[in-house]
Specification:
107 residues; 23% strand; five-stranded mixed sheet; alpha+beta; globular
């Protein structure tokens, strides 16, 4: 699910125990960033992605409380990012194994 409002971002941060997007949510409204909450069939978040809209590049991918994303969800993340034609340039406290992602940006 794409996170489209400040309230939705607050919900994601509270549920996931992180603060992703708190400092760049308003630029998101201007189109610089997109945030996605990847959820299971029960609508529970299991990963949050921060995407720079210019270039469609994932810069953060984090699990609950910054922990490693469970392996059973990695294929879903790969499918989603492939379908959305996203590439990866992960930085900061990356919690998922970068080698598990399909299309790394080498820069």
């Amino acid at each position: 699910a794409q996170i489209l409002s400040h309230k939705a971002m607050e919900r994601e941060n509270a549920y996931m125990g992180h603060n992703l997007g708190q400092h760049c949510f308003y630029p998101l409204c201007e189109g610089d960033w997109a945030f996605y909450s990847l959820r299971d069939i029960n609508n529970r978040s299991y990963a949050t992605l921060q995407v720079r809209t210019s270039g469609n590049v994932v810069t953060h991918c984090t699990g609950y409380r910054g922990q490693t994303i469970p392996a059973e969800y990695m294929n879903m993340i790969k499918d989603f990012t492939t379908r959305m034609q996203m590439t990866f340039k992960l930085r900061g406290a990356v919690t998922a194994d970068q080698q598990d992602f399909p299309s790394q940006d080498p820069h």
